[in-house]
Amino acid sequence: MNEIAIQVENLSKCFQVYSSPRDRLKQFIFPRLRRLFGKSSKHYFDEFWALKEVSFQVKKGETVGIIGRNGSGKSTLLQMICGTLNPTGGTIQTYGRVAALLELGAGFNPEFTGRENVYLNATVLGLSKAEIDARFDDILAFADIGEFVEQPTKTYSSGMMVRLAFAVAINVDPEILIVDEALSVGDELFQRKCFSRIEAIRASGATILFVSHSGSTIVDLCDRAVLLDAGEKLAIGVPKQIVGRYQKMLYAPADKYDAIREQIRHADDYVISAIDNSKNEINDAIEERLSTKHITEIRENFDFNLKPSSTIEYESRGVNIGMPAILNISGEQVNNLVRGKVYRYAYNVKFSSSASSVRFGMMIKTTSGVELGGGISAHAVKTSIAFVDADSSYRVEFRFCCSLNPGVYFLNAGVLGDVNGNETYLHRVVDFAMFRVLPESEDLATGVVDFFCYPELELQ
User: Fold this and answer.
1) 310 and 209 in one domain?
2) pTM for the whole thing?
3) How far apart are CA 166 and CA 177, in angstroms?
């Protein structure tokens, strides 16, 4: 039985870029004439390779995210998988009905009504008229555009067009769903509805491949992630690790970008090792929780062996963060925490260069990389530290109440400042420290965050 949903092998795409319409005309005429006279052909265009020998597999039922900077080839890759672009080289194979959310509404006829466009678009996606009839009410309910469905789509707002196009695409029961940044459209309620529907499609066993610039979305939804840059596949693996590499490259200084890029390209063995170690840490924590669930009294303490092995450090811009520590109110270092108590997360910052508009931050994340919450030293740039002299040092502390349920969690640290008029990271360390929230006996809380929910039952 074939367990592969999408197979991409050595996929390449080259576009011909013309400097003027005249060169395009020359390319159409002159090479043919030169061949007729036995001369070698000449090109009147420049080649732009949007993708270069990209290979990967997506298994059935897997959710894979593609992340990368603008111009890295993400959308081109999805368009070739969907068949709207032909590859210059390589092969693509898909196994199952494909529904694509690329340029939403691009296939709609503006002169047709919403109803007519639903039937047209759904037919292109492979549904019969009977199937569309059976699903039309669901499509209309999801789009929530009311009587406008009987009006020509040229009268629609962009939001209405997006709603209708999305509603059609996700109601064809796809075996493979391909999404290109469509999750960022619409208002918050519609986005939540879209996420909920995609989660339901995922739960049904469908394969999902999507592009996003949101690292938290990739971490939250995906089983694996692919990092593309300048048309090349740099890395593929666990979403948390891939997003960390992407962000490290994204915030790298221009003069060190190429070196960091090469480091990421050749870091697979190290990352796999780091992932394995993280899994061991998580499994150990689970086993400890199970073995101590009858504890009657728990106390915070420090475990020297509880150290992150998945740390990712951004390139420094004259600032270095060091010496992370979690302290209790008495000032003792701890990393096994008790729910409900207040702790201090501290780190040192050394400025080797002067900096302006400086803010310090922290973030608490799950083991899968989902950001739970954090803090920053100033709510806006205008209330930040206006100027920091070179050779200055700061001790940064954030107090937080541990409202998390038992498990293992990670801490980030970051320093923001002005670089050429833009706020960016002067230094950042991901998975800088980690801690464990100790289990309690007779614990009724569920999920990640403890909202202090208590049941009240009354027999009626």
Assistant:
1) no
2) 0.73
3) 12
Strand partners, 342: 401
pLDDT band at 290 (very low <50, low <70, confident <90, very high): very low
In a domain, 127, yes or no: yes
226 and 112 in a common domain:
yes
Helices 188-203, 158-170: crossing angle, 10 deg rounding: 10
* 140 within some domain: yes
Contact (CB, 8 A) for 356 and 450? no
Q: Which residues contact 232 (CB under 8 A, 6 or more apart)?
A: 52, 53, 54, 73, 265
pLDDT, mean of residues 288-292: 44
Q: Same domain for 243 and 309?
A: no
Phi, psi angles (nearest 5°) of residue 382: -65, -20
Q: Could you tell me the pLDDT band of residue 415, with boundaries at 50, 70 and 90?
A: very high
414 - beta bridge partners?
361, 428
Greater pLDDT, 73 or 274: 73
Strand partners, 301: 336
In this prediction, residue 225 carries a pLDDT of 93
Backbone angles phi, psi at 242, to 5 degrees: -65, -45
Q: What is the pLDDT of residues 182-211, one digit of tens each?
A: 555 556 567 767 777 777 788 788 899 988
Is 381 found in the same domain as 234?
Answer: no
In terms of phi and psi (left: phi > 0; alpha: psi -120 to 50; beta: otherwise), the region of 105 is left
Sequence-distant (6+) residues with CB within 8 A of 23 are: 44, 45
Hey, what are 392's tokens? 């200055």
Is the separation of the CB atoms in 311 and 267 below 8 Å?
A: no
- Rounded distance, CA 110 to CA 152, Å? 6
State the chain's mean pLDDT as an integer: 84
Note down the domain range covering 419: 295-437
Upper half-sphere CA count for residue 160 (Cβ side, 13 Å) = 18
Cite the beta strand spans of 98-221 per DSSP E: 98-101, 176-180, 207-211
Residue 94 near residue 138, CB atoms below 8 Å: no
Question: For the domain that residue 246 is a member of, what is the CATH number?
Answer: 3.40.50.300
Overall number of domains in the chain: 2
Question: Rounded to an integer, what distance in angstroms lies between the CA atom of residue 105 and that of residue 111?
Answer: 13
- Asked whether residue 410 is assigned to any structural domain, the reply reads yes
